[in-house]
Amino acid sequence: MDPISVFLVDDDDLFLKSLEHYLLHTLKLHIQIRSFRTAEECISQLNEETSIIVLDYVLNTANPKAMNGLMALQEIKSLFPMTKVIILSGHEDMTLAIETIKYGAYDYVVKNEDTFIKIRQLLKNTLQVKKKKMKLNPNTTITVSVFGLLLIALLILAEYLKKN
To answer: Is the pTM of this model over 0.85?
Structure first.
């Protein structure tokens, strides 16, 4: 099985390298991590194989024309809507968190002493679900879909019989 692709995006080199090292040595999953200092670099390397992006909200403050995390999130979701994006921020701002979730962020993590642990747990949960889906027998999916349709039909029938 191919490794699961994870992108990390942060303009703080020390944070970026530390997070990458931590995840590679603590996640017991078959993953490939790529790190980027700007959203533009990340987006240029995106493809349908990219499973998860951990994206800092404030990026490249030295360049006023650089994309911030929200702009990058919108671009990523328009190109690859199935890619999960976890937004990182140094600000504990509920309005910002809600806004990023509204635009498709998978989660919003505040940078603090527990950041690495939270990200690792989010990645672990997400990647395990993805692995289970990859192993799912196609016939099981069809069975579940047919069962779901039958359930809906029965509910509609029950509602119809109540009215008559």
So the answer is: no
User: DSSP string covering the chain, please?
Assistant: -PPEEEEEE-S-HHHHHHHHHHHHHH--S-EEEEEESSHHHHHHH--TTEEEEEEESS--TT-TTS--HHHHHHHHHHH-TTSEEEEEESS--HHHHHHHHHTT-SEEEE-STTHHHHHHHHHHHHHHHHHHHHHS-HHHHHHHHHHHHHHHHHHHHHHHHHH-
Taking only the tens place, the pLDDT of each residue in 31-80 is 899 999 999 999 999 988 888 999 999 987 778 788 999 999 999 999 99
Whole-angstrom Cα distance, residue 68 to residue 119?
20
Considering the domain boundaries, does residue 160 fall inside one?
Answer: no
Q: Token digits for 148?
A: 């779901």
CA–CA distance, 47 with 34 (Å, rounded to integer): 13
Q: Which domain holds residue 107?
A: 4-136
Domain membership of residue 66 (yes or no) is yes
Structural domain total, the chain: 1
CATH number for 46: 3.40.50.2300
